[in-house]
Structure formats: C-alpha cells, structure tokens
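Table S2 (text version). Query chain:
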Amino acid sequence: DVDESEGTGIWTCQEGIRLHAATATITSAHLFRIASADAAQRGLAKKSLDGGIVVGTIKFPSEDGRKSFVEDLRCATFAAFLMSFIQGFDLLEKADLENKWNLNYASIVQIWRAGCIIQSDYISDLLEKVYHEGHGDGNLVCNRHIAEHLMKYYPALKKVVLRATEADANIPSLSASLEFVKYSGSTDLPTQFMEAELDYFGNHMFDLKGAGPGKPKTGSHHFEWQPARGIHETK
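Corresponding structure-token output:
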C-alpha cells in the first residue's frame, strides 16, 4: 500500500494541522494506513512485544445481543462517516477563508455525491439542506441538525468503542471519532498542563479560563516558571 499515490490523504493531514482544523477521524485513518503498509516492521515489533496484542473475540450472551451490537456498529460507522464529512468541510472552509476562493459548498456536496469513493446519499442530503439554509457560526458541529445526528448515534459509537477496546480490536478511526464528539462540545478541556509546558519552554502564552471563550489566538498571559527539576533532584 505504498505507491506514492495517497496524495489526498497526505494533503488532508498536512493542511488540517497547518490550518488548525481538527481532522481527527481522517488523520487517524491515514496513520492506520501508514502502519498497515509496513508489515515487516510490524512483524519485528510483534516479536519485541512478546507476540503483540492479540485481538480477542467479542462474545454475546444471546443472538439478540449479537444483533443489537451489529446495529450499534452500523450506527457507529454512520457517525464516523458523518464526522469525516464534517471535518473535511471544516478544512475546506478554513482554506477558503485563507485563499478567498468563495466556494459553493452545496455544489461540492453534489460533486462528492457523484464521486467514485466519497458516496453517501443520506449525508449528502443532510449537508445540502444545511448549506442551502446556512449553517451559521462555527463548523458543522455547531449546526443543530448535524448535532442532533451526532448525539443520536453517540451512545452506539461509545458502546462499540468500549466493546472493541475490551477485545483489543483495532478501531483507530471509531475511537478518534468518539473523542472528536467529546472535545468538540466541551468548554473545559484538560489541557492546562500542556499549555503550561508550551509557555515554559517557548513563551507561548496562555489565556485564563475565567476570561471566557474567544477566537483562537495567542494568549495574553505568561508566567515565569521555576526551573525544571528531575525526579532524583526532588528527593
């Protein structure tokens, strides 16, 4: 799977990071593709990990339980597909703002509907309606119609990620999608330590939570941190 033809995936990951677009579902899928391509390295790692992590079997107490999980998996897959669209359009909107392309997003939905890879009539219908009506401020997660779908399928997505994690199954994009929903709608993220490190090492500045939300920008506060000390130095 390494033929130097995965340009779209590479460009999406690169531009997502550069433009500060949280393309978590898309990026995790591409990183998984990169890992899958190097079977030789995975073989070496498997030996060093004493056989690696063996994927187990998800067991069900009854046939009804199995059918219920399959339905949850269907809903979780739909949620991840929808988030891929959300993240892709968020990236396009940020690039559009930077380059002043004045893109017609409803037309892009039509192009994607007829694509050879990106196809989903239901999601296309949903997004086309949202763009014709105007999705308002923020990315598509901030639109009420989109948010209702995300919250409707969130429980199924969470169940699938939990069961798959218990079985040590590989679910990079589903788990990334779950986290995307969680942090996209949170106003209190546990990033204080990371921001403190950035400010300590590079004077990156920070804002205070009590100051209220604002647009992404350089913070207005800096702290003169004490010199770092190792574990042995603190004893």
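Notes on Table S2: The mean pLDDT is 88. The chain is about 60% helix and 0% strand.
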